[in-house]
Amino acid sequence: YKDGEPVKDAEAGDEVVVVFDRTPFYAESGGQMGDKGTFKNKTTILKVDDTFKIKANVFGHMCYVAEGEVKVGDLFSAQVDEENREATARNHSVTHLMHFALRTVLGDKVAQKGSLVTPESTRFDFSYGKPVTAEQIAEVERIVNAQILKNTPVQTRVLPIEEAKKTGAVMLFGERYGEVVRVLDIGKSTEFCGGTHVKATGDIGFFKVVSESGIAAGVRRIEAVTGMNALSWVQNTESLLAATAREFKAPVSEVPVK
Fold this sequence. Notes:
Layout: E1 9-11, E2 15-18, E3 37-40, E4 45-55, E5 58-67, E6 69-71, E7 77-80, H1 82-106, E8 112-117, E9 122-127, H2 134-150, E10 155-160, H3 161-165, E11 180-186, E12 189-192, E13 207-216, E14 219-226, H4 227-248
Antiparallel strand pairs: 1-6, 2-5, 3-4, 3-7, 4-5, 8-9, 9-14, 10-11, 11-12, 13-14
């Protein structure tokens, strides 16, 4: 597809949506961004910037034709961007742990109202009638990081919907479920989920909440980072604090008083 219309071929410099008979790419779903990567053959390179669902089992790959040309019937080898996939998986897996921690700290009335999982961060919207305190955020971080340190394996089960409901798995807001669903067990969390995930909780590395705010009446939004993104956030925060301390010509420990 080019500019929304079906085409039989495209050449270098074109941006097109390409559909393959099968693909290892994950299509955007359940708040998780689609995969990026590359399709290659002897003459052509297609750079994939996004993957999305055209229909339930038909995935569209948003491609830039970097070299050569592509036409209907061509054969390609596929390569998912592993670093992008792994970073996204860390953030998706930690969203499940964070959901469990929020329900533990704030109560069972907490319910997901939306999410966005990217390689950079996870954004989670949930029902709660008042601001979350700094102490509660710290407790959520403690619970999540404790589960990460245990490095427990992540388990998935594909079950008929009625059998899956009996597991007590959390059904997520806004999701449409078919007759067969995937149940994800990670740490102390059990939820329905079709996304990509880590193999064990330790793969997440480190979890840090970077913001919490209200976005609507009774709905809060929390954003968090993991892995190397969490390390970068901590390092940047330390740099800002050190710069502030230099301005006050005082040790970091004296900055609040100053």
